[in-house]
């Protein structure tokens, strides 16, 4: 693989051991993936900021790098950690576990990582521009910045993202190249479904698309509008049930002003029609509503935006969460502060819900709660929490989630 003079100097160790090691990893990855060269990146985002992912090995790696003077070279942000840094005791996190996450936070801080602790860094602090090359991990963030913002990143693995941050480079292959960003599988929504497309159909459609295409690039035709949060929910679900890292919604996302543009002029042979029957079936698969009590309701996955906080506050105003049920709202510290200023946090907390900030159900040790049944409006939670939290899952709209939290149970309507 071609290396510039500067990259060759880094590889010779002239810029210190952390950069040398990081460049060596990237060069080997590039060679294995057929990259001709490296490309400079505008920013990085790290997934192994969570103790649950990094573990003791991560602490050892970060400690060694810090001792060797490692510093990130580009704007770099952290994914959710494994604790709510302010409230970990309220979430029954063991003290020794919290101490390990705090140690990771300290080490990342010493390397110059911005402590955003969020899976939605693109909404503040780490906002890519169209066409920027990036070195990001976190499946829900990767699919968002590729699809909705038109930036370019492969779905990096933990530690490869750190190598990108330390060198400011990634191998130039995959989604960095225009020819690899063409839509490959076409999803056509039936007119009756498209005309009455409910908010919670976005994660459901994402889930269906992800499990159908795996890591191919889907193109969705039929919708005429979608909000920032709906695109976020769609992408996160598709990246969880499949490995989608880029999607196109014709007429909505920036590289898909027309079907021809989304597909690079070659309309895919593989076409799938999605109607009400298919959406209903996938929602059953994600966790159909069966009558019964609920232990925990999880909303804010990916991390809630200020618009979502406003919505939660409106739905919870004057209500009270059932005493046998937990309602947890996941978000980041930036949105929390803004929502506090705007009075939403007071309404949400007065109703008995808890904010879970800088983390989420999937990243925290929740065994002490003994949860058996979770209700969520998130396709990503629906996919992962049966394994990570060990619960049965019910997938429902945001309104139905709040109703379940207040009633302490779900009922098939
Ligand atoms: Fe974010 Fe956790 Fe969901 S990392 S995307 S809130 S599973």
User: How many domains would you count in the coordinates?
Assistant: 3
Radius of gyration: 21 Å
Largest sheet entry: 5 strands, parallel
Number of strands: 16
Total helix count? 16
For the record, the CATH architecture of the largest domain stands as 2-Layer Sandwich
- The CATH top-level class label of the largest domain: Alpha Beta
CATH topology of the largest domain: Aconitase, domain 3
What does this structure look like?
The chain folds into 3 domains: 5-174, Aconitase, domain 3; 182-285, no CATH class; 288-410, Aconitase, domain 3 (2-Layer Sandwich). It is 41% helix and 14% strand. The chain contains 16 helices and 16 strands. It has a 5-stranded parallel beta sheet with strand order 13-12-11-14-15, with helices on both faces. Helix 15 links the parallel strand 14 and strand 15 (392-395). The chain is globular, with a radius of gyration of 21 Å. It binds FE3-S4 cluster. The site of FE3-S4 cluster has 12 residues, from loops. FE3-S4 cluster is lined by residues 80, 119, 140, 236, 301-303, 330, 360, 362-363, 380.
